[in-house]
Amino acid sequence: MAPVKILWVKANKLLPANSGGDIRSYNILRQLARHHQVTLFSYYDGRPDSAYETELRRHFPDAVCVCTRKSTNSHLKRGFDYLFHLPASRPYAISRFSSFAVREKLALWYSNREFDVVVCDFLDAAINFPELLTIPSVLFQHNVESEIWRRHVQTESNLALKYFYSVEFRRMIRYERMIVRNFHHVIAVSEHDRELMGRWRNPLQISVVPTGVEVTRFKSAPRQLTPQALVVFVGAMDWEPNIDAAEFFCSEVLPRIQAKIPEVRFRIVGRNPGRRVQRLKGKSVEVTGTVPSVLNHLQEAAVVAVPLRVAGGTRLKIYEAMAAGKAVVSTSIGAEGLDVHHGRDVILADTAAEFADAIVLLMRDVELRQRYERAAAELASQYDWPVIAVKFSQALQAALEIAGELVAKDAVGEHET
Asked: Buried b / exposed e across 370-393, counting CB within 10 Å, b at 16+?
């Protein structure tokens, strides 16, 4: 692909890149910037953060930052903000990212047509895009958001929460369908997500770019020859699907493992663990909070667990564990869309009993566990970030070819009107 001018629009801070989506965006951006002129537009809530903006420009010199000065980070403020937006037709998870300053900035760029292609990173940034996209524009869908809300409705037992989830789901599917249709091209992270969005628009206008992993970094980490009787779960612990997964494992899976391996411990590794996660702490359960690196925790584990019941998006945690040469037990939802193979490089288990049995089997049978570890590392080696960035560039090229014709038609129609 010939060098092009790319505008990449990101809601929330990109750095530090410690969530799956941010890690994915950062690594793809870093690779794209080697061959293209990339302008990262990052807008964020709260107070102006000069340290963040300086650090971002160190990685991406042409970055543009806008602080929206919104302050809805506390649970109380977020609750009141949600109630205020309750009568709105748009989903709250999206409308809270609306910003007049951001809309003005994007409108000016589109009016001047300063870029060859614009990437909307995640659905939440789309709310500030103009209705008429006069530059080829790509929606980068890390998740099919409506699918996550649908699964929340399915798994939630609290009736009040179930009601609010159902309201948000109905709003989200209407909004997401509209946005997916509006952009010239869509990039999905898996064939499964492409199939879901293919119900809303021509699947030929949806490319798939799988998740990646920094293979060298994880592969070069020192191996612990005799892992502890330790199960590790890695994920941002301020994200509801991960919180649900940790609760499910502690209440339904861990007791079954302890009945056969009493000394087993479960370690939850991830940022911002709230009260629900902190309550899980105990003699057999550790909660680390934010850590400088997940590598040491992965290396200490006998098995890495991915007990997700509600999920979507990158599933970065699985490839990272595999690249570190770890045996992984996951639910089917947790590994959905990944190129993994049950019984060869991963064990898929969807009930608490099956999940516990799989972990017990891997802990007791060292030879079997090592066979899974070798297969996992071999699979992960195929998904290094430079390889993924090439696929992303190819998707952008396809988008430019398709979108260029659409933009030209829109421009002619606008001129005639």
From this structure: eebbebbbebbbebbbeebbebbb
